[in-house]
Records
---
Amino acid sequence: MIRQLMLGGVLAMAVGCGGLEDESRDSWFVVNSAESAGDGLVLFDVSLYATSYETNPSGDCAVLSMTAQATVNGKSADIRSRGSKFQKFKQGCEPIRFTGVAPADSEKISFRLFDLGLERVVEFQNVFEPMSMRIVSPEDGVLHPGQTLVVERSPATDTATAFSGGPATFEQLSFFSGEQQFHFNHGFVQDGNRLSFTVPTEVPAGEGFIALEGDYNSGVTRCDFTRCSFSRRKSSRVPVVFAAP
């Protein structure tokens, strides 16, 4: 009977010892990677992790049966690891892991795991949509030192990666004027997919651009585990004019 599930690469999870139907354990579904497989396809590497020894002293781990199956967007996936019993010297379990392909233009990516009559599903949206950014204020794109700059990024379903539910830690705005670059990744205000910054006073006047870069989790439309994540590096830039003080 399956007690915990885990997906690694881009997905990781941890499930309890009562099988897929047991929701008493923490679980984390993670997509480890998504790389080109040629012919317009993307290869996904996914893992499902069991609970740690500290949170699960009994050492129960998820182990798939030999009849278990996994799919990516309805197509059969290859199960690379069915998991392992708890290994005390590692203070954990080997993750369940599978790989599968889906078209690179898919609007949604759906991962399904079947075992012993039970099914668990994870779905992400706008996975391959590139990030774009627009200036909300000032509308004319002329930035004055000390002025508040408001930008909006898309897709709005993406969320900046954060540690343990804390504030976003992998999102950075840079100001470029001429050949000079100024990083600005602290003290900004976030409201959904809108970010507010104060234009640095040290940026010289002239034409330039602003660039936003970060690690973003794709929007989750279904997650049959405690947590599901699919993080990808994205960036965007917009031309601006920096005004003199």
---
Amino acid sequence: MTATRTAAPTTVVDQDMNGGAMGATGRSVYGLCVHGLDEVEELPPAEAHPDRPAVRVRQTTVVPPPPVPIDLDGGVRVLVDGRTLAVDRRRGTATFHGPPLAPDVLAHPYLAPVATVFNRWAGRETFHSGAFVHAGRAWAVVGPRTAGKSSLLAALAARDVPVVADDILVVDRTEVYAGPRCIDLREPVPGPALSTRAVRAGERLRVALPPIADRTPLGGWLFLGWGPTTTTPVPPVELLARLAGCRSWHRLPTDPAALLGLAALPAWDLTRPRDWAAFGPTLRLVERTLTAARAVAASR
């Protein structure tokens, strides 16, 4: 897509969503310290971490710059809704050009491209994945948009299983970072009652998540699919190919040793029927599979 307009000579001032000065503390999410989103309730206040990259999220209605592929310095990308996102590594800024965005959509999905770019610049890997905690380790839940990741994670959350992230997983060597404290659903999840509120212009139901540790050791991978309720181990060689293919921003460099380390973790294909009645058996199968994997790891 090629733009013929040039950016208007207007300075974008660092402000919060009400036009006031940005706070100094920022918000903690995806391993970043994010400034400019203090009104986004799904993002907890940040604490001081010397290894946490800082990014200032800004909004403006000035004419956007033309698209530029994102590289190691920055870039400009036209989003699916017509807005433009400009990211600048040196300045540590992410600027949305277009109509103002409400806090609920900034939490998700608009923060996702910002988080993936800045984390890739920091040498981390990012994947289209959620994750939950079992026995002190995070287990990634990977699949396309219609694979039911959010529904599975919400069903786990309803059973008091800690959820690390809903849609984007940031991996730093052997640890993953917490995402926004919410899960967005297309339809309610049956079973234990979950409190939800309508977000994203009524298109999603948002489940609020409790606080969680900023980072959690990664235990392994679950790749979702539809079919009979079963788990099938994924060999390391195939896992490496899958991870290489589903990481974000392929144009940015990747540490091969880091990917090899992630591919050494246990992984399974998890299939289940497209039937709400299968949720119970699916969750029990996941519990058995991960418990057995933990026992095997402990015996080595």
---
Amino acid sequence: MVNQFQGTGLDVHATPDINSVIWKKLIANVSTNVVAALTGLTGSTAIQHQQSVNIINALCQELAQVARAKGIDFPELQDPLAFSLKAFASTKDNKVSMLQDVEAGRPTEIGNLNEIIVSEGKRFNIPTPYNEAVSWLTRGVEERNRQKLSVVESACEPDAVRDAIKNENLDALRQTLETSPLARALSIHFTEFEPGRTTAKLPGTSQLSNFLGYTHTGALFMLAEQVMAAAANSLGHVGLPLSCDIEFLHAANPAKDVIASARVIDTQGRIARVKVALTQDEQVVASLSEMVFLRK
């Protein structure tokens, strides 16, 4: 079988000790994934934060004790912290899978990682208080996400709006968004409105200036919210925002138009991710990313 896989160009090899291979991978996953999930930090940041390093150390030291009690030993267990930090650093600014699960409102793999260390520790009468604590905290985060997703239908949603979304009547949805009070006040109108992809314009006017003379960030966010809502609700489900990250890159000139483009870039089950770019004179002034729950 190994030869067949290698014949396809895959890097595959056999090992006489699969447990050492599994537990070597567990060192980094157990000690770093949960830290990322609970703090939101990526590897490049966490390894520079002493308190995060402290908890990583505590988690991997408990794992090492449990592994040895099971008769498992390999070189990386001599200094599990160094191995964990090196592995975490290699992820750079990428979000590990457990952090992605938390942000998307999905169940995590805590049951296959830290909770395994806890259960195996109990078998060998080895205390694992740090792994137990982070397991409890992660289960709490999962419960918070479940409660977020258990959103009851709001009585404030007009039947006509729900029907337009359910029937994917984009013309009706567009009209509803463009005639909302704030959109009217800012003269925001759509230039593109397709399933999962929308573009809108905020006309320039001196009334949008903040006290520093730049376009008010509230107006920019309102523009972004319009296209995010349009894209998220254009797929036949009511899109309810769960979280939103925004990054302002350049100051905008209030006298000039600002264009916002949104697109749904990922859907996993009932969760969608919407990306938005705000541009002025073809320069990106702000970018946003929103997680949305798609309610039936």
---
Amino acid sequence: MPTLSPTQLLELHDKLRIEARRLYEDGLNPVDQNADWRQALTEARMMISEALRASDFLFDVSGALQQSGRHMLVFRFLMAPPVSQDQFKLICSDWPKSTEKTGAAVKAEKADIVTSTFQSWLALRLAPWLRTKRRPAMRELNSLLKAVAPLIASQRVATARRNRLAHIQEVSLIEKLESNGWQLLPTRTIDQQGALLPHQFMHKARFASGLTGRAEVDIALGLKEGVVLAMECKVTNDETNSVKRINDVLKKAEAWRSHWGNFVQPAALLEGVIKFGDVKRLLDGNVAVFWSHRLDLFEDWLTQRMS
């Protein structure tokens, strides 16, 4: 990539951003969309089945949460009406919201409080066996699955598409690096300078950030003079999702730069629908920006850095 002024660089990335959006829109075909929907529906059914088993078919919701907070996603969709994470947090301030994402166990006292709130909002129509305190019939379980799985899947289908495209994105980058003579190393924690020599890289490495922090980086590349290029690969479905994904990149970049100083160069490989303001935020944060559909520009940048 030629040396550009800040204004020229922003104009170039705006052009590439528009191209990326157009390519994403062109890829919205019914075949792939249907495949994403089927995948999301299958995952939703599995999550519901796991939550039902863990909670002894909703007789022990607290016990399920003490195993894993991830089950709360299913329980929220069994409420009347189903509620978002933020909405449930409003009606149950004691709920440790982060446990739904991490899957961490909820402490017994908190789990009991969450269960009490859940039970008061539970749609008993979905679980009629609770009224008579009996084991559910198979037809009742099937009815619950048919009613709730599409609700969860509709929230997760965008994630299914993003994950599929992200896998393709990362594989394409790895293949490009290897074709240019870069050596893929086994994944490990990068916790000291010089862990990656020039022309070496790792996929999904743990990257030290602070005394105890270990943030995963999608691709870590060894540059000259001990510098590591820490690249996050981000696919976004829409401009709202763009804000969240770019926030993730900036948060990691700040942590890495605080720990490593000038020995780390944060970067983002972008694909999909990205807001212009989010690209500007990355550039203002000294994050190198590249695009999946123009890996040739990334190759040029690497050649310049390694020469």
